[in-house]
Each structure stands twice: as C-alpha cells, then as structure tokens.
C-alpha cells in the first residue's frame, strides 16, 4: 500500500512538475540518426505526443514472425512494476533493455542524468517547471547474451516509461504496426519484403490522417562508388618526384569494410639540361587495388574515412625518358593514414621482381 502511494505521488510529480522538451519529428531522418538503431531496415510508428515505436530488422520476415508487439509490452510492464525505482528523479532519462530468452528474461536499467537543468516559466503559473530534455527508451531484444548489434530490435521512445502502460490501456500498438506493414507490402517500385532490399519508413496515423514516408528504399548492401583524387610526392631513386593520382573505388557492401579500385598515377620527373631549359618527363601507371577499412566507433559497420591498409599493383602505360623500363611494375600499400595524409611504401621493378628498388610516397587527398 505504501509503495503504491509513493509510485502515484511520483507519477503526479512527473506530470505536474516537469514537462518534456520538444523532440524532432522523426528519429530516422537526418545524418547519422538511423545508425543509432539496430537493423538494415526500420519502421518508425508515430504514437502521438512525441512518442514513437521503432522496429529495426534485417529482413521483413523477422517482423512477420514477431508482429505481436503488445504481448511483449504487457510482459515488460508486469516485470518492470516489480523493479521500478519510485524515487527516481522524474527528469532523469532511463534506457531499459528488455532481454527475452527461451526460458528466462532480463531487465537492464541504465540511468542518464540530465547534464543541464532547464526551468521554464509559464504564464499563469507561479512556480517554474523543470524541463526533461531526453526521452526514456525501452529496447527489446530476443537474446540474453550481449551483442554489439542485434538482428532484430524493438525501441519504444517515450517521455516516461509509465507511458507504455497507458499505450496498452488505449489499445496498444499492434494495429498501427499492421497498417505500417501493409504499407510496405503495397509499396510500388520495389518488393521491400525481399530480404535483398532495405528501407526506412515513418508511419503516422492520427484520426483520419494517414502518412507514409519511405526513405532510401533500395538494395540492402547499398553498393557505391568512391572517387579519390590525391596529390603527393614520392622518393624514387633518391629523387623527389611529384605525382597526381585518381582512384575510382567500388564498395560492394556498406556493411563490409572492403573496397576495390582502379586508378591512374602520373609521376613527373624534372631535368635541367646543359642549355638551361627545364624538361618535364611524365610516366603513368594504371593500377588496380584493394582497400580495407577499420570498424566504426560503435561497431555497427565500417568507417570509410578510417583506412586500415590498402594494396595495389600498377603497370606502366605511358613512358617518357629512361627512368622506368617499358615493362616496369609498381607495387604499393598504405602504411599510415591520418585524415587526408597517407604514407605509401612502394616497390618498382622491371618485370616480376627483377631490378627491384624501393620508394615511398606521401600523398594528400581522399
């Protein structure tokens, strides 16, 4: 009885003494936002009052198998009642991870103190109102073991975790999820239920108004081309040689940190003949290579601005002067990369490993 009274008192305090700062219209739209959520595809369902349900999944079939979300939320509400901290500061954001296993469940609660206390003064109200700047998050995963990324995750973003129980009392979320899934099936242009496809959908149904906003529907791997111009200077046979380089790199999957490139490298050699006239001799190599990228900081995929290393081989295709033999071959790799600066050791040879001499190139560019 006493605990119930305290819980009610804290709930009233959170309703009367605090308000929630306005959150953005979509949690998926915008640079870097979708990367905060697991899954290749996402469905965001507007639950009203800035609350939202986000489902992240690898394939549409996973959602078909776990579409009864209300039953999961009822299970969470029953478990959370037994452990809820009724003395928690109402403006302190909470991230709750609800793990579902075959024979057990786990609730992990992380609290995020508000770094800045903001007070809002309202007309007709004597006392200031403390503003809560960050929503509470309920994340549901179907695994008892911690993982960097989950194939299927359910997120409820609410002003307060007590809102979950109210949503269930008002009919739950299953109906809106079914409507959003039907919008996916009816999408024209691509079969988004195909596991080779990915998409983001923001679904909103309020009264007679229904809104569907599909973002970036297409192939799940999202292959792309990267153009990488570069200027530099190399030490070849004890001579500093300026150079220009352009690589066109094909990345077959944005989830695999490997890229394949075709490039063109021009070396410029300067001579001072006896008559005093400067002479420029250009020698060009056509190259093919492979690049390996480091994982991103959150471990959700590769960071294509953080090169681990690269390897390439080049054949001489344009020759002027006697710096290289007609059958010259260039081998190179990336030893160090920081921002726009790269250090690339090189090996030049006549044919395969004949008359080999080393070099090093310092490049500046993408």
Description:
- With 366 residues, the protein is mainly beta.
- The chain folds into two domains: 218 residues, no CATH class; 142 residues, Porin.
- It has five helices and 20 strands.
- An eight-stranded mixed β-sheet has the order 5-4-8-9-3-2-10-11.
- A hairpin with a 4-residue loop joins β4 and β5.
- The longest helix is centred in the first third of the chain and has 15 residues.
- It is elongated.
- It comes from Rudanella paleaurantiibacter.
**What's the SSE pattern?**
HEEEHHEEEEEEHHEEEEEEEEEEE
Number of strands: 20
Question: Major β-sheet, in short?
Answer: 8 strands, mixed
Classify the beta-strand content into a percent band: over 45%
User: What is the share of helical residues?
Assistant: 10-25%
What's the helix count?
A: 5
Radius of gyration: 29 Å
Measured distance between first and last alpha carbons = 66 Å
Mean pLDDT: 83
Structural class: mainly beta
Strand order of the largest sheet: 5-4-8-9-3-2-10-11
Shape: elongated
In total, how many domains does the architecture comprise?
Answer: 2
Low-confidence stretches: 1-24
């Amino acid at each position: 009885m006493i605990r119930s009274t305290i819980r009610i008192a804290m709930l009233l305090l959170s309703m009367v003494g605090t308000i929630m700062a306005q959150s953005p219209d979509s949690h998926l739209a915008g640079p870097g936002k979708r990367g905060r959520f697991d899954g290749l595809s996402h469905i965001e369902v507007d639950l009203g009052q800035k609350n939202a349900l986000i489902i992240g999944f690898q394939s549409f079939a996973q959602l078909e198998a776990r579409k009864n979300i209300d039953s999961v939320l009822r299970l969470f509400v029953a478990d959370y009642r037994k452990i809820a901290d009724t003395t928690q500061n109402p403006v302190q954001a909470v991230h709750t991870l609800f793990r579902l296993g075959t024979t057990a469940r786990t609730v992990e609660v992380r609290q995020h103190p508000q770094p800045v206390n903001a007070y809002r003064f309202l007309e007709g109200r004597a006392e200031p109102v403390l503003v809560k700047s960050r929503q509470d998050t309920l994340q549901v995963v179907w695994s008892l073991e911690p993982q960097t990324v989950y194939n299927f995750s359910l997120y409820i973003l609410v002003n307060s975790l007590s809102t979950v129980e109210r949503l269930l009392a008002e009919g739950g979320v299953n109906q809106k999820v079914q409507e959003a899934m039907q919008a996916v099936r009816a999408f024209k242009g691509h079969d988004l239920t195909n596991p080779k496809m990915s998409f983001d959908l923001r679904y909103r149904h309020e009264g007679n108004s229904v809104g569907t906003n599909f973002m970036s529907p297409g192939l799940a791997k999202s292959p792309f081309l990267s153009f990488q111009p570069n200027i530099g200077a190399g030490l070849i046979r004890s001579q500093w040689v300026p150079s220009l380089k352009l690589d066109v790199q094909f990345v077959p999957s944005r989830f695999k940190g490997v890229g394949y490139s075709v490039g063109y490298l021009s070396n410029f050699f300067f001579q001072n003949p006896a008559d005093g006239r400067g002479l420029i001799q250009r020698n060009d190599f056509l190259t093919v290579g492979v690049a390996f990228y480091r994982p991103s900081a959150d471990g959700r995929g590769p960071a294509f601005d953080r090169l681990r290393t690269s390897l390439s081989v080049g054949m001489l295709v344009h020759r002027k002067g006697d710096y290289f033999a007609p059958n010259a071959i260039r081998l190179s790799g990336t030893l160090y990369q920081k921002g726009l600066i790269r250090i690339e050791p090189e090996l030049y040879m006549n044919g395969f490993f004949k008359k080999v001499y080393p070099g090093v190139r310092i490049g500046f560019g993408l």
